[in-house]
């Protein structure tokens, strides 16, 4: 059995400027922040970031890594809007392909299933189609004469053809992973992480802890807590605290005090400079030490 | 409000927030066994009141990845919730696209034909104000009943034309064809001033009721387009004693509702 263990630095070492990168998690929940921080410190730039956006998008925008974001939203959950994302958009620093959350899901699914698009009603009539003029409609080939038409209203119906969202690389963070590349989510929602991996050429998983193959399930953890199998992963890396400051239960909740500080730092260039020097442009070990050194809220 | 929260010694006056809760609750009347997805404190209270009284089959999520038994108080800790089934975000799309859902979303802007905007203010390519993003609004509005909650009714929120159509209104759905129209159903808009629907010949917004303490003139002045005002417009109904008790004593003794809409 191949041992897929590597390091966060080596993962980021495989990423190149101009790549399209999918980032797992949702909003400010279980984001692979250790990799995001390493990307912020790297020379990589000009990225297209594909995400159910949270502070991953905000941080990468604030450090000038992003050319374009593909998303349905960017939110910090407990803070409705990410001010770094807001600033990047309002100052015209990033492009956006903004789509419905369900269209986004279908885009990943189409890429994972190797079809060029998937049809949906989502998007019809909305400005998603006017702000993304390259997204096309598709007419159903099943008309009134077809034996397969079940609802007459669907005869020749026009639907949105959500294009596949192909990713050069995807990064997700799990609670545990094993050396072979299986990964476990111990909170109730794996979000779209298996699909991000399925849509990508290079597939990276970080986890709080890496364990021996075959030992993820057991005790109170059923096999159903392992939604990511090793056919979806190329490399796994240990990243304890690797989702901080986003929520990663049951290992830890969102660090609301830190998130507030992150958001507040967007208000003023000097404050952002100080925040970045303290928490972004430092090694992951230094970062984690500084987090441990903060007074508990 | 002070002192112990029991029905016998709270102020007999129904607050504006409580009228809004009832107006939201009534959106789910007769809904049956579908997912009620309320956004905001007052719609969340409304869905709970509906489930505990006239719409017991409603399905509510815990805001994370599960469906909840009953309709617990707003301040319930996650560890105290009783759950009946899983509902991860990916499965929510199965519900959305099956139509077994009635959402009440918020709107930063809403217009005369029911278009909603939560994406950006100004030109989308160079937004004056970046908002959260279209989220699920485009898909929700063409797949299942959709209502909106606007806690700050003004000419800035009730506008002639929204800047970015996120949730699809009647005119846009009709123009988009049968794929958009098939399950399109914008049910009602509840604001801090009144209740509105689109049951007019041309599906433009119509005032159905004004909340106690609000005048029709006040609503017209706060609306940036021509509203239909029917002859039979009435005052938003008062909560029953049971509903008021649920709101004040059971679901929201900490009066979170009064922070979203002040009387």
Description:
Chain A is an alpha/beta fold and 297 residues long. Chain A folds into two domains: 8-99 and 165-279, Glutaconate Coenzyme A-transferase; 117-163, no CATH class. Helices cover 28% and strands 21% of the residues of chain A. Chain A is built from ten helices and eleven strands. In chain A, strands 1, 2, 3, 4, 8, 9, 10 and 11 form an eight-stranded mixed beta sheet that branches. In chain A, a hairpin with a 4-residue loop joins strand 8 and strand 9. In chain A, helix 2 packs parallel to helix 3 and helix 3 (55-62) packs across helix 4 (83-90). The longest helix of chain A has 13 residues, at 101-113. The model of chain A has no long low-confidence stretch (mean pLDDT 97). With 263 residues, chain B is an alpha/beta fold. Chain B has a single domain, classed as Glutaconate Coenzyme A-transferase (3-Layer(aba) Sandwich), CATH 3.40.1080.10. Chain B has helices at residues 16-25, 41-52, 89-98, 137-143, 170-176, 178-181, 216-221, 241-251, 257-260; strands at residues 35-38, 60-61, 66-68, 83-86, 101-106, 109-110, 116-117, 120-121, 129-130, 146-150, 186-191, 194-197, 206-210, 234-235. In chain B, strands 1-5-10-11-12-13-14 form a seven-stranded mixed beta sheet, sandwiched between helices. In chain B, helix 1 crosses helix 2 and helix 2 (41-52) crosses helix 8 (241-251). The longest helix of chain B is centred in the first third of the chain and has 12 residues, at 41-52. The radius of gyration of chain B is 18 Å and the shape is globular. The termini of chain B are close together. Mean pLDDT of chain B is 95; it is low at 1-11. At the A-B interface, helix 4, helix 5 and helix 6 of A face helix 3, strand 9, helix 4, helix 5 and helix 6 of B.
**Text of the CATH class of chain B:** Alpha Beta
Instruction: Give the number of domains of chain B.
Output: 1
The CATH topology of chain B is given as Glutaconate Coenzyme A-transferase
Q: What is the domain tally of chain A?
A: 2
Structural class of chain A comes to alpha/beta
Q: Specify Rg of chain A, calculated over alpha carbons.
A: 20 Å
Q: Report helical residue fraction of chain A.
A: 25-40%
Q: Count every beta strand of chain B, where a strand is a DSSP E run of 2 or more residues.
A: 14
